[in-house]
Amino acid sequence: MKRPIDRYVDSLLRRRRPKGFAPTEDDLAVARTAIDLVAAAPDAQRPREAFVEELRHRIAEQQNAAEPPPPLPAGHRARGRRRFLAATALTATGVAAGLAGGVAVDSAASGPASPNPDTEADLKATVGTWQTVVAAADLPEGAVKEFDLGAVSGFVQRVSGRVQAVSGACTHQGCRLNLDSAHRQLACPCHGATFTLAGAPLTHPHNPHPLPALPRLPVRIDQGRIQVYAPASGALRPGNQDPT
Amino acid sequence: MPAAARREDPADGPEQPSLLPTAAYSGWEAIYADNIERIYRLMYSKVGNRHDAEDLTSQVFLTALGPLRTTASVGEVRAYLLATARTVLAAHWRATLGHQVTVIDVAGVDLEDFTGAAEPERAGRAARRIASILSGLPERQRAVLTLRFLRGYSVKAAAAELGVSVANAKVLQHRALRTAAGLDQEGEAS
Questions:
Q1: Were both Cys, which of A62, A98, A127, B74 would link to B66 (CB 3.0–4.6 Å)?
Q2: Bridge partners of residue B22, in order along the sequence
Q3: A96 touches chain B (CB under 8 A)
Q4: Nearest CB partner across the interface for A169, out of B79, B152, B177
């Protein structure tokens, strides 16, 4: 008579990994309650030290494989561009391939600006992919589109013939920004901060300190599609793009 | 379990506690040290078991740290980690139960907890949540859930404590969870 939901709860109580099953609505509500309760148990709180260490090693391997950490000076504009360059190199199996593949968006991409081509040409993508956010034809001059790739969401716009993408998370506390088309700016629903479409901070009510600019995201046009470079994971479904 | 004494100091570094959102991390190691516990704790609160919480935490860092430039500010990094965590958790539920059993609320309470609610505040909030789950329950249902979930009793031990058979304790627990989940309002009808 043991129902799958009982087994599920039982696993939680035995500190085991519960197995998936096809739940009813009721089952989901019960699972949710059980998770809340289990998570409140006193021994639930901190990660095991062995786990923390092991993951640190895995990340270190990943980082070493991917890139030498560039100790960049502060400065947002410069940073945005450098980030763009690095990501371009990361994606294609080399800068040349990147150009051939149609990185035609930002003159910086094809420019000779790469400060250290030898290093950057060696970079390989390990986790990111170019993901289409909107067809190039659907983003005329002056237009803005919101996109959500799961791990990354933001806004892409075309100004003066160039395509730009900025993160859609407010740099104050990470709330998701809304597009205020009437004023051509981005507005934060949480505390009312606003940004230009290019990501520069405009206002930050009740706070004397200006916010950092929105991070720019690597973007390119590839075969008529505007693509943003974003972390790949099982979670990112290509169907999830739906620019509104 | 590690001693509960090392509260103030998340895993590493004397300069960690007072990071401003606009400061920058010195590298991925600093990002990791400062956020590993936050992410793990968040994931645990959403899946309720260590195994999944560890896997999902790993995914968050391995996914997010790749493309992340460490020149981003602390606030940006945390926002990015949290957004990644939301996605990773959503994928987990799609793959296991096919429904979003729990979600990470990027703009709400999860964000507050994540970006620096002090320990007592967070503990207080957790306690209140549990209290609110249990408060609506009939006496014996509350007792069985408290014993089983919060005090780690086995079914057998809980049954003995409550003076019922093991089978009855199981039924009682099942019913209590349903009531707590808001499904059976009529309560403890036998």
A1: A127
A2: none
A3: no
A4: B79
Return d(Cα A107, Cα A93) in angstroms, integer: 20
Q: Which residue of B has its CA nearest to A124?
A: B66
Q: What tokens appear for A210 in the block?
A: 């200006």
Q: By the 8 A CB rule, do B85 and A145 touch?
A: no
Note the pLDDT tens digit of each residue in B53-91.
999 999 999 999 876 666 778 888 888 899 999 999 999
Picking from A28, A61, A228 by the largest number of B CB atoms within 10 A of its own CB, the best residue to mutate is A28
Reply yes or no on whether the pLDDT at A79 is more than 50.
Answer: no
**Secondary structure of residue B98 in the 3-state scheme:** coil
Nearest to B45 among A34, A39, A176 (CB): A39
Which run of H or of E encompasses A145?
Answer: strand A144-148
Cα A171 to the center of its chain, rounded Å: 13
Q: How far apart are CA A149 and CA B104, in angstroms?
A: 16
Read off the tokens for A78: 């410069």
The owner of tokens 């640190």 is: A56
Residue count of chain A, please give it: 244
3-state secondary structure of B14: coil
* N residues, chain B: 190
Is B103 in CB contact (< 8 Å) with chain A?
A: no
Provide ipTM, 2 decimals: 0.82
